[in-house]
Amino acid sequence: MAQVALNADLIPPQGPAIKKEKMTAKTLDLQKNINESRRRFLKAGGLMGATAIISGSLGLTAFGRGQQGEVHLGSGIGHPIPKSVQKDPLYNISMAMFQRAAGGPFGFWLNGSKLMDATLVIVKDLTPAGFNGGVASPKQAFELDFEGPEAMPLAQGTYQLYGGNLPVFQLFVVPELPTSRGITYVAIVNRLYP
User: Fold this and answer.
1) Span 91-103, mean pLDDT?
2) 124 by DSSP, 3-state: which?
3) Whose CA is closest to 144, among 161, 163, 176, 121?
4) Which residues contact 90 (CB under 8 A, 6 or more apart)?
């Protein structure tokens, strides 16, 4: 019996009780670290917000503008139209000008070679409600539908167009399925943004 008592003395106290004490200490430590991290995060965010409000740049920053109100390309809001686009002849051709040229022929050229003549059949106003669009507005979106011969189909791409008493301009066109009158080529001109 003495031997049993001796062995009983060597048996460690209940394992779960020790684990519970260690878990509690670990949990408290973890909770302290989380609270510290949360405080640091909130403090940093609060300081950034206060700095932006005090400097008066919060609104400018939110809308992609710098300190002086200048616009940065790629900000997504109000970026300027590049000068190369403004010099392109298509930039200055309005929807009204295309409407006057409807029904007339346009020559499609590529690399100095005439590929075909197509007729401008439809000019559709695509300007959504709420925009000051229309035929005379710089903010307009419209679709141009050309019908060309089925014998010489063009691939989707950019071509030089001549016709309609308009300056020579480049236009990206997409062919649609052939109809009884030939192949329709569609181009979209979108000047709603910026």
Assistant:
1) 91
2) strand
3) 121
4) 169, 170, 171, 189
Question: Which of the pair, 32 or 177, is modelled with greater confidence?
Answer: 177
Residue 58 CB: number of other CB atoms within 10 A?
14
pTM beyond 0.70? no
Q: In this structure, what token pair is assigned to residue 141? A: 């979106």
The two tokens of residue 78 are 């109000």
Lookup: tokens for 1: 């019996």
How many Å apart are CA 60 and CA 30, to the nearest integer?
A: 40
Could you give the C-alpha distances from 174 to 98, 106, 180, in angstroms and in order? 18, 15, 18
Query: Is 110 within 8 Å of 173 (Cβ atoms)?
Result: no
Alpha carbon distance 161, 110 (integer Å):
9
Q: What is the pLDDT of residues 126-159, one digit of tens each?
A: 888 777 655 555 678 899 999 999 988 999 999 9
Q: Cβ-count burial of 17 within 10 angstroms (0-12 exposed, 13-18 middle, 19+ buried)?
A: exposed
Q: What is the mean pLDDT of the chain?
A: 75
Q: CA–CA separation, 185 vs 194, rounded Å? A: 27
Q: Residue 60 corresponds to which tokens in the numbers above?
A: 């400018």
Burial annotation 21-43 (CB, 10 A radius, 16+ → b, else e):
eeeeeeeeeeeeeeeeeeeeeee
The reply to whether omega before 194 is within 30° of 0 (cis) is yes
